[in-house]
Structures are given as C-alpha cells and as structure tokens.
Write a structure and sequence with these properties.
Strand content: 15-25%
Strand order of the largest sheet: 1-7-6-4-5
Bound molecules: acetyl coenzyme *A
Number of strands: 13
Oligomer: single chain
CATH topology of the largest domain: Peroxisomal Thiolase, Chain A, domain 1
Number of helices: 9
Helix content: 25-40%
Length: 335
C-alpha cells in the first residue's frame, strides 16, 4: 500500500499589535533603568502594551482574520486551530477554543500549546504533521501573547524586555517542491527553573500571600537563558539544515525568535550567516514571545524580502526550556 505524505506550507499570514507604544524613555519614570542600558543590552527601543480589557484571544482573533483573508480561506474550512501561548485568557478553557468561537469556525478542533516562546514553532510543527498525515487539510496556527500583564514592573531585569502582539498563519498542503523540508523540536526541563511563573498552578495555587510576593509574575535568570539561547539558535538551525541535506549557504532568510539583538547577532555569527539574511524587528516590539516569529515573518514578506522558492529557517527558544526549528521552502500562493 502506498502511504502518501503531504507537504505542508504556509498560505496566509496576519498579525496584530496593540496601539499603545511604550518607549524606553517611559521606563526610568517607574524603575532604575535607562534607554541607553536597554538599547545597548537588548536592542529594544519600544514595545506594545495590550489594553486592560484586551486578552490573548482578542489579539489572536484580529491576527487570525487577517491571515484567513490573506489565504483566501473561510473559518468554515478550518479543521484545526492551535495557539501557542504562555498567557492564555484563563488556565482553562483553551484560548484556541475562545478563538474558534470568535471566528465561528464550526468544523475545527482547537487546543493550546505551552512551550515558552517556542510555542508558535511547536504549533506549526504539530500542524504540519496533521497535514502530512491527511488528518487535517487546513490549520490555523497562532502565536499570541500578553506578557506585559504578567510582568513584575518592579523587576528591571525582566520588565524592560517584553511586549505584546499576535501573529497567525494558515497552513495547508502545498506543491511537492515547496513547504516544510525539515523540523526539530527540543526540550531540557532541567532548565525550567531559569524562566517561570511560579504561582497559579497546582504546585502553588493562588493565595493572598503568593499575590503579595509577586509570584504570579514572570521570573528569569537572564544570564542562564542567554547562554542557552545562543546554543539553541545555532544548534537548532544547523540541525534543520542537516536534516534537509542543506548548508548555511542555501539559507535565504533566518527568522529568529526576537528576544535580544545580541542573542540574534551572536547566533548568526556562529552560523556564519550575514545579518542581511536575518530578519530583525526586536527594536520595535521587544520580546513578544510566541508572537515574535510570525510578526517578523510578516514584516519580511511585506518588505518583499522573502520570495517564492526561498529557503527560510524559523528558529525559537524559550521557557521549558524548549527550542524548535523549521526549514521551509517558501510557497507564494499569490504569485
Ligand atoms: N536597567 C539597568 N540596569 C539593569 C537592568 C535594567 N533594565 N537590568 C539589569 N540591570 C543591571 C543588573 O542588575 C546588573 O547589575 P550588577 O552587575 O550590579 O548586578 C547589570 O545590569 C548587568 O546585568 P546582566 O544580567 O549581566 O546583563 P546582561 O548583559 O547579561 O543582559 C539580559 C541582561 C538582557 C537579560 C540578557 O541576559 C538576556 O537577554 N538574557 C536572555 C533573556 C531572554 O532571551 N529571555 C526570553 C526567553 S524566551 C521566553 O520563553 C519568555
């Protein structure tokens, strides 16, 4: 019996960022920090902040409508909706179900993936398996994040680095000579302690004491995450190339997780990849976690950088610790 594996690709992209811009110059008003420190250590100049009444699924909905329109796909056609997020609207139900309802996607299954900032790439890899197996034809994959709502605004080590945003892609089967060529998923739970939100789960349920101690906020050991991040970006990118039988010379664009320009430059240098082939927008959005890769991808498409047939690596790392990479031969269904 012939077993047909279908090649999955991205056929539509959409993004959304909240209106409110917070520049570095606002931060010294509430913290002992400076624009100079933040820019020189992270490359970030400004970030977006979600409104008080704006949730992760609200932003996901706005990005998703744009992605569906861009793909020419109606909500009825969706078989599956996957959101990668660390800041769901609630612990349950899944934000993907709230998005399913918002879209009226009555034929879709829906679930969230929790894989730190790597959640969008994890979700895209999962979607690709459903498509390859023929279990789903059309999948909506979203990275949406409202991390500014869970930051400790008294902790200068973390709060200056993050921002809010959402990005969505529609994935379908594409022609055999296009689409996802290779993937890698990785995890190392022994490093979970380096990036976490300690309270609010079963280990430490919410109490007045946990709230008073800011334990419902993101905590990070920046130096440990930095070391891990550079290694994960380099090794993950090399591994997807190896699995596809390609080399760094074949890479047209690297779309990395946007956490810190120093991490991106360090990884590009180790890969011997010139920065002209690396997509960067961390300066304007900060670290938007799961939204960062689709936000950067959409910008590179809008600027006419990524074209049909280009080899594009998307690479990410994050809490877990996790990392993931995906090598895609870009399919421009609009050409
Ligand atoms: N303003 C001014 N000074 C600061 C600030 C700030 N905002 N934050 C820290 N400092 C101080 C520190 O207290 C320290 O002072 P000390 O030497 O007196 O103790 C000094 O600056 C240097 O601190 P370092 O931690 O050595 O600074 P570094 O150059 O390593 O940069 C940073 C810190 C930006 C956090 C870096 O380590 C980093 O980017 N790490 C990775 C973070 C990351 O990518 N996280 C996201 C993971 S993805 C996810 O899943 C969410």
């Amino acid at each position: 019996m012939k077993c047909e594996v279908k090649r999955a690709g991205i056929v539509g992209v959409g993004t959304y960022v909240p209106e409110r811009v917070m520049t570095n110059f606002e931060l010294p008003e509430i913290l002992d920090t400076s624009d100079e420190w933040i820019r020189s250590r992270s490359g970030i100049r400004e970030r977006r902040l979600s409104a008080d009444d704006e949730s992760t699924s609200d932003m996901a909905l706005k990005a998703s409508w744009k992605a569906l329109e861009n793909a020419g796909v109606s909500p009825d056609e969706l078989d599956l909706i996957i959101i990668g997020t660390n800041t769901p609207d609630m612990l349950f139900p899944a934000s993907a179900c709230l998005l399913q309802d918002g879209l009226g996607a009555k034929n879709a299954g829906a679930f969230d993936i929790l894989a730190g900032c790597t959640g969008f790439i994890y979700a895209a890899v999962v979607a690709a398996q459903f498509i390859a197996a023929g279990t789903a034809r059309t999948v909506l994959v979203v990275g949406s994040e409202t991390l500014t709502k869970v930051l400790n605004w008294k902790d200068r080590n973390t709060c200056v680095l993050f921002g809010d945003g959402a990005g969505a892609v529609v994935m379908k089967q594409v022609p055999e000579d296009r689409g996802i060529l290779s993937v890698v998923l990785g995890s190392d739970g022994s490093g979970g302690k380096f990036l976490k939100m300690p309270a609010g789960g079963s280990r430490m349920p919410a109490t007045p004491d946990t709230v008073a101690a800011d334990l419902h906020c993101l905590q990070m050991n920046g130096r440990e995450v930095y070391k891990f991040a550079v290694r994960a970006m380099e090794e993950g990118s090399s591994e997807v190339l190896r699995r596809a039988g390609l080399t760094v010379n074949d890479v047209d664009f690297l779309v990395p997780h946007q956490a810190n320009i120093r991490i991106i430059e360090h990884a590009a240098k180790k890969l011997h990849l010139p920065m002209e082939r690396v997509v960067v927008n961390v300066d304007r959005y900060g670290n938007t976690s799961t939204a960062s890769v689709p936000l950067a991808l959409e910008e590179a498409l809008q600027n006419g950088k990524i074209k049909d047939g280009d080899n594009v690596i998307m690479i990410g790392f994050g809490a877990g610790l996790t990392w993931a990479g995906l090598l895609i031969k870009w399919y421009d269904c609009h050409r």
